[in-house]
């Protein structure tokens, strides 16, 4: 999920850079790029992953 969010942020940053506009002094292409990199880093670190489907369950006999 974080990787998809990062792709959206990078896409918005690219469109804003190509169009040459910003959304005020706070939301700039640099801010969106930094937020995208943060999402990629969190995704690679394993944050917000569903670990329950990767664990093995022991069968009781």
Automatic annotation (TrEMBL):
<keyword id="KW-0812">Transmembrane</keyword>
<feature type="transmembrane region" description="Helical">
    <location>
        <begin position="30"/>
        <end position="49"/>
    </location>
</feature>
<keyword id="KW-1133">Transmembrane helix</keyword>
<protein>
    <submittedName>
        <fullName>Uncharacterized protein</fullName>
    </submittedName>
</protein>
<keyword id="KW-0472">Membrane</keyword>
């Amino acid at each position: 999920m974080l990787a998809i969010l990062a792709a959206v942020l990078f896409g918005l940053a690219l469109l804003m850079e190509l169009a040459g506009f910003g959304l005020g002094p706070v939301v700039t292409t640099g801010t969106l790029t930094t937020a995208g990199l943060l999402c990629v880093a969190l995704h690679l670190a394993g944050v917000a992953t569903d670990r329950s489907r990767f664990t093995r369950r022991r069968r009781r006999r």
